[in-house]
Design brief:
With 58 residues, this protein is mainly alpha-helical. The protein is built from one helix and two strands. The protein has a domain at 17-44. It is 62% helix and 7% strand. A hairpin with a 5-residue loop joins strand 1 and strand 2 (53-54). 0% of the residues are buried.
Length: 58
């Protein structure tokens, strides 16, 4: 059983798909990093019973 040679359109489609995949991975990494920063910053704040927030603000 032999495979047919890969057509040129498949090569172009692969490079386009690779670009979209890398862009999506970069976006996911950015959202994850922003989420981690936001969660750690909120962890430094103290929430009072009356709904006010005390903490270090920069």
């Amino acid at each position: 059983m032999t495979f047919r040679p890969e057509h040129e359109i498949h090569k172009r489609r692969f490079s386009r798909n690779l670009g979209v995949g890398l862009s999506l991975a970069a976006f996911i990494a950015l959202v994850f990093a922003l989420t981690v920063v936001k969660v750690t910053e909120e962890g430094k704040l103290k929430h009072n019973a009356d709904g006010t927030i005390e903490g270090q603000t920069e």
